[in-house]
Amino acid sequence: MCGRYASSKDPGKLAAEFAALDATGGAAPGADFNVAPTKRVLTVVQRHPQDETGEADLERTERSIRVMRWGLVPFWAKDKSIGSRMINAKSETVTSKPAFRSSIKRYRCLVPADGWYEWKREGGAKQPYFMTPPDGSSLAMAGIYSTWRENDEAEPLVTCSVLTAAAVGRLTDVHDRMPLLLPRGAWSQWLDPDQPDVSDLLAPPSLEIAESLEVRPVSTAVNSVRNNGVELLDRVSLDAREKAVGLDREQ
């Protein structure tokens, strides 16, 4: 699963990396090295632009960086608190689950990340690891989103979930699930608002993508959401028993 990740790039940098416009309107969250459920996060969407009357221009689309809350609240939900249990959607069942099946057809996004955290139980304790591209590029986690209103007069709440898939390659040594990572060549298809069927993109990430990531042991300080600083990304030394697992190797 993906329950914590890091996102340190500002909307301008992400806009350049994802060939998008910054549509955050100054409301973007700052650098966050311990993103947790229900926090505001940056996402990438592609929609038909609308004029002042709300009429969509179906002849073109516009890719933009938007702010959403992590933890999807379906449009039909009675209470937004359900979002805290909807941070992930399994790629194997996302098209059939009532909470997600509408979004996967019409409202898909990318969730940029520096990397994500996962915990491996070793000798009764859990050691956190940070999975990240060694070159500093952003991961594009497949996401879906939804718009919810408490009532007709309330401001809309836009929320998202990160899709997960079966882990592949040596990532299985840490956990059996991982975010559904999309390569650059798949971004346009995933974001296309006129393409309801993306079933061919729901398979686990390629072994090439998984093997390209650094699997970095980090401090247990990340266990607490109160801790949030770049030092959470620092590599820590493991004892001889943990090193024997073979995860503490440089890329």
From TrEMBL:
Q: What class of enzyme is it?
A: hydrolase
- Looking at the keywords, is DNA damage present? yes
Listed A to Z, the keywords are: Covalent protein-DNA linkage, DNA damage, DNA-binding, Hydrolase, Lyase, Protease
Q: Which organism is it from?
A: Saccharopolyspora terrae
An example of a Gene Ontology BP annotation on this entry?
proteolysis
Q: Does the keyword Protease apply?
A: yes
Q: Which family does it belong to?
A: Belongs to the SOS response-associated peptidase family.
**InterPro entries membership:** SRAP, SRAP-like
Q: What is its EC number?
A: 3.4.-.-
Molecular function terms, GO-annotated: lyase activity; peptidase activity; single-stranded DNA binding
Can you say what this protein is called?
Abasic site processing protein
